[in-house]
User: Fold this.
Amino acid sequence: MESINITNKGNQTGARNEIADALSRLSRAGDYKLKEKIFRQTCLQINLNPITDLFSQHFNSLLPRFMSTIRGHGETAIDALNQTWKKELPWIHPPIPVLPAVLKKIREEHIEAMIIAPLWPGQILYTELVNENAQSLMLDWSNEILEPGTSLIKKDLKLPPGKICCFLMDRRPGKEENLRERF
Assistant:
């Protein structure tokens, strides 16, 4: 019988473990937001003015009109996934686990939307975001452009690691054909 040498290095600390640590304590509640300066610059560069901030709350909304995940103060609606987005140009910075449902809703409603998401090549959603966007803009590293919220700090949760990107998804009739012609 052949023996195998396995060395257990134990808990890895330091820079090598930073991403794994961040993922294990990643905020799934979305208690963070894009810095307002970055938001304004992004809208200028893409040359769009979103109308409604989806998946935000009164303390982290970047627009006067917003849809919240819970009942709070000033939201126009609760549970953005159960609302229509057709009359809006939504700014969507969803909690990462909600991203598949967001992309599905954009496809179903045939709308244009601005999505803020981490650039994670290993994720299945990466392909759709990168290959099927009308326009994209690399923003910066998450720790440079995202502001953590109070509960994120109190619970010692982490911001999503890596670079953050803005993807303009355009599923309006006639736009998908133009998109296919690009590739």
Remarks:
- Helices lie at 18-24, 36-46, 99-109, 124-131, 142-145, 150-154, 175-182.
- The domain at 26-182 is CATH 3.40.50.150 (Rossmann fold).
